[in-house]
Automatic annotation (TrEMBL):
One of its GO terms (cellular component) is endoplasmic reticulum membrane. The keyword ATP-binding does not apply. The chain crosses the membrane at residues 12-32, 53-76, 88-109. It catalyses: a long-chain fatty aldehyde + 2 NADPH + O2 + H(+) = a long-chain alkane + formate + 2 NADP(+) + H2O. It comes from Phoenix dactylifera (Date palm). This is aldehyde oxygenase (deformylating).
Amino acid sequence: MAFAVSDELLGTFVPVAVYWIYSGIYMLLGGLENYRLHPKGEEDVKNIVSKGTVVQGVLVQQTFQIAVSLLLFMVVSDDSGVTPPQPSPLVIVVQFIIAMVVMDTWQYFMHRYMHLNKFLYKHIHSKHHSLVVPYAFGALYNHPLEGLILDTIGGALSFLVSGMTPRTAISFFSFATIKTVDDHCGLWLPGNLFHVFFNNNSAYHDIHHQLYGNKYNFSQPFFVIWDKILGTHLPYSLVERKEGGFEARPIKKD
């Protein structure tokens, strides 16, 4: 007898597996000094939490994420148990774009508010910024409440507003997970397609993690449009370090 796994379960657990697989690949590449955005020693000096603590924090957030995802799929599922048909490829592309815009919009305003509100920043969002030198598997290192508000609720809204099926959600949330990990990978690798197609990338987000960029580059994980519209866009130049690697340096705003 064949064992069938529902699209809802796959949509819940596949992005979690993708997170650890993709970030694991980047950790294996972490020794590529000629492509790092920070010298390797800076992690130990500037980051104030251990990698073990980061792993625990991410696992806690993913536990909340799994619980909310299962609840969401339970609410929207068809009691008949029949898998909804997939729409045409064109409709799926449109749903992807809608979901990306919804996620970006939600995360920009929630993320920015957590910086503007001193209480929320001190007690909630500062946990993510304890990683001044970002690395791949620290992408989802957040306070559980932040993870719920920014990532889990933002993902739920993207799913509901776009009207995508659970099967499409498997691909979308896996893609969003890969993009988020890539933005925190701390590397500028040649041929990285995310750097080709998205201005919001590892260097752009690295600026935000530095003290001078704390009030800029809130957009995540796909586009930079809200930063540009609302005056929080801080451009940068990528400069090669003499000892190897790159540095993302902010370009002063007029």
